[in-house]
Specification:
Oligomer: single chain
Shape: globular
Distance between the termini: 20 Å
Number of helices: 6
Largest sheet: 6 strands, mixed
Radius of gyration: 21 Å
Strand content: 25-35%
Number of strands: 15
Mean pLDDT: 92
Structural class: alpha+beta
């Protein structure tokens, strides 16, 4: 089974360097820059293995001095990396790509940089003014805070936790079933309705497990039990952390979609899911490969697979 995309840090974030202006100034002169515009970065297939792509990283030349720079970290060779929000240039052999479309095709380093850069960039764009005082803010600590200046009002990046759940009936073999939902607002795949896991944000004063059970009850009208944590994934659209779970439900339960968020829900056998993953004519589509929803489905499909665990060391 493939590893869960975006789940592993590909760089040493070197957080201690964020408050070192002298080091950051020198690092900028020798860094590699990830340009981001409207959720896209430049990617290329040139020089990559078949079925893989990589980010096109540039030098600091040509980036205006007054442009905000977000320090992403350093690799094993101590090369620093920054993200910058700027128009993407036209380069031979390169094209714009989104994290949703290519995240699963990138190396651990590139996928991590893309996700971190997107999350930071989105946060900065949404926090030009203080939510407390209304004052104009500026980036500080190499892009990891914003401040109003002299009064030292500091704002830190926000990550919103969300629970996402693969519901199943606990039956082994090809006739075992999982329960997936479809939202009319989701983009279809080749004209087919897309079915995925049930997800929702964790509310104040609520545990992730309680949020999972509540969202399923609200959106499908069924109860679940034995909620088990599987893995987590950053989802920078614009700034979520997806906490992935599996949960058991009565296989005879008929879902009653709320129609507001879920337009349809149904049980799928392992045989049906296997056929869909193999490209068979099943009449429905599954989540995109970069998502934790897809990973949870594949994890349920192959119960012998090893669950992903967090890795904090740089893997480039």
């Amino acid at each position: 089974m493939n590893e869960l995309p975006l789940a592993t840090d590909g760089l040493d974030r070197a957080a201690a360097r964020r408050r070192d202006p002298e080091w950051l100034a020198q690092a900028w002169k020798r860094c590699r820059v990830l340009l981001l515009a409207d959720g896209q970065a430049l990617i290329t297939e040139e020089g990559c293995q078949e079925g893989r792509v990589e980010l096109v990283l540039l030098g600091p030349e040509g980036v205006p001095d007054d442009t905000e720079r977000y320090f992403l970290g350093v690799d094993e060779g101590e090369t620093p990396y920054f993200a910058v929000l700027a128009a993407l240039p036209r380069l031979e052999g390169a094209r714009p790509g989104t994290l949703r479309s290519v995240g699963h095709l990138l190396s651990v380093r590139d996928a991590s940089m893309f996700a971190t850069g997107l999350a930071l960039g989105s946060w900065h764009q949404r926090n030009r003014y203080s939510p407390v005082s209304g004052r104009l803010t500026v980036a500080a600590e190499a892009g990891w805070t914003r401040t109003t200046g002299s009064d030292r009002e500091v704002i830190w990046p926000r990550t919103d936790p969300a629970a996402i759940v693969l519901i199943h009936d606990g039956v082994s073999g090809p006739e075992g079933r999982c329960l997936l939902g479809s939202n009319a607002a989701w983009q279809s795949a080749d004209g087919l309705p897309r079915y995925s896991c049930i997800a929702g944000f964790v509310e104040p004063g609520e545990s992730a497990e309680a949020a999972a059970a509540r969202e399923i009850e609200e959106e499908l009208g069924i109860s679940v039990r034995e909620i088990r944590y599987v893995a987590s994934q950053p989802w920078p659209f614009p700034g979520s952390l997806m906490l992935g779970f599996m949960a058991l439900a009565d296989g005879t339960a008929s879902p009653n979609p709320d129609a507001e968020e879920i337009s349809d829900a149904r049980w799928f056998t392992r045989a049906e899911i296997s056929s869909a993953l193999a490209g068979g004519p099943v009449g429905f589509a599954l989540p995109m490969s970069v998502s934790i929803a897809r990973y949870l489905i594949e994890q349920w499909l192959d119960p012998t697979a090893t669950t992903v665990t967090a890795v904090t060391t740089a893997q480039v």
